[in-house]
Write a structure and sequence with these properties.
The chain is α/β, with parallel strands linked by helices. The chain folds into two domains: about 190 residues, Spore Coat Polysaccharide Biosynthesis Protein SpsA, Chain A, CATH 3.90.550.10; about 100 residues, no CATH class. Helix content is about 35%, strand content about 15%. The protein contains twelve helices and eleven strands. Strands 3-2-1-4-7-6 form a six-stranded mixed beta sheet, sandwiched between helices. Helix 1 crosses helix 9 and helix 5 crosses helix 6. The protein starts with 7 loop residues before the first strand and ends with a helix.
């Protein structure tokens, strides 16, 4: 495989077919900027065989993680903290010990420029969180796979839990010296620019935005929640998110050219619905209603928090 170069990998997580759409667009964004490294996606049993086939065509490794598999002794302890199920799934990225170093990317990120230099950083390197800069944002982080670290994280999680109910709170507690110990582990914000920053500090975005490497679509700014015209191929972004229109459009461009042609109606959720859409033609009333329903419901199946605690129904109520 021409992409099998060295012991480094980009890693993401998809918990169902709808989240897999984000993972696929992310993977194509990495290919687009000519990364030299492998792509890995962790999936759960919620991903269909049809989607697994499509993921396998883009990612070098598709690894099934079943946190409810009782044959894995580590999983037995999860019964004590079922609310951390998805967080425990993400922690499995530390078990990819065939790699020397990895960069984890949430599936609601998009790579705009080659960022392979991140692999020169050490564990745990991450960018400050825009909401509380003494914490790092866990949407992008550099780490070193290790069974020992994985077991330590599991044990720590069972004792301490997470102060925000997700992986970011847990990882900040575990890597608690991040704010003060080594500035070299503080990634520049351009490696994980939260989309909300374009309006919370617009002058800085205008000054430094051209150097942006990775954008993180947090909150209501997720591309798949923005109105998209299947006839013209144009996304429309309203309100405070207008400054990220170019990035939302890039997401949809990659989706239309590289993801949509391979979708199957055998896929579940939003992926299956979008498979039946003809690009270049208007949506039927039935398709419009189905898509809006799936966008409201499909993305929050399983109470998944790692891509943002959004009330999708409320978001769509505002958009409609």
């Amino acid at each position: 495989n021409i992409y099998d170069m060295g012991g480094f990998a980009w890693v993401t997580l998809a918990t169902n077919d709808s989240y897999s759409l984000g993972a696929l667009v992310l993977a194509h964004s990495l290919r687009r900027v000519n990364t030299a490294h492998q792509l890995v996606v962790l999936i759960t049993p919620g991903v269909t065989e049809a989607m697994k086939t499509q993921l396998s065509a883009v990612f070098n490794i598709v690894k099934l993680v079943d946190v409810l598999d009782s044959k894995d002794a580590d999983n037995l302890a999860l019964l004590a903290r079922p609310e951390l199920g998805i967080t425990f799934t993400k922690l499995h990225c530390w078990r990819l010990t065939q790699f020397d170093k990895c960069v984890f990317l949430d599936a609601d990120t998009l790579v705009l420029q080659n960022s392979d230099e991140l692999f020169e950083r050490e564990e745990l390197s991450a960018a400050p969180d825009a909401g509380w800069p003494d914490c790092f944002n866990s949407g992008v982080f550099v780490y070193k796979p290790s069974d020992e670290t994985y077991k330590a994280l599991i044990e720590f999680a069972l004792i301490h839990g997470s102060f925000d109910g997700g992986d970011q709170g847990l990882l900040n507690l575990f890597f608690s010296d991040w704010p003060t110990k080594d500035i070299k582990k503080h990634l520049p914000f351009v490696y994980n620019m939260c989309s909300t920053a374009t309006y919370s500090y617009l002058p800085a975005f205008k000054q430094y935005g051209q150097g942006l490497k990775i954008i993180h679509f947090i909150g209501t700014a997720k591309p798949w929640l923005q109105p998209f015209n299947t006839e013209t191929g144009l996304a429309s972004v309203s309100g405070v998110s207008q400054n990220i229109t170019q990035f939302v459009q890039l997401w949809w461009d990659l989706f239309c050219t590289s993801v949509h042609p391979s979708l199957s109606t055998e896929m579940a959720g939003l992926a299956g619905a979008l498979a039946s859409v003809t690009l270049g033609a208007p949506l039927s009333a039935e398709q419009t209603a189905l898509e809006e329903h799936l966008r409201r419901q499909g993305w929050e199946q399983g109470n998944i928090d790692y891509m943002g605690k959004d009330s999708f129904a409320n978001i769509w109520q505002k958009n409609m």
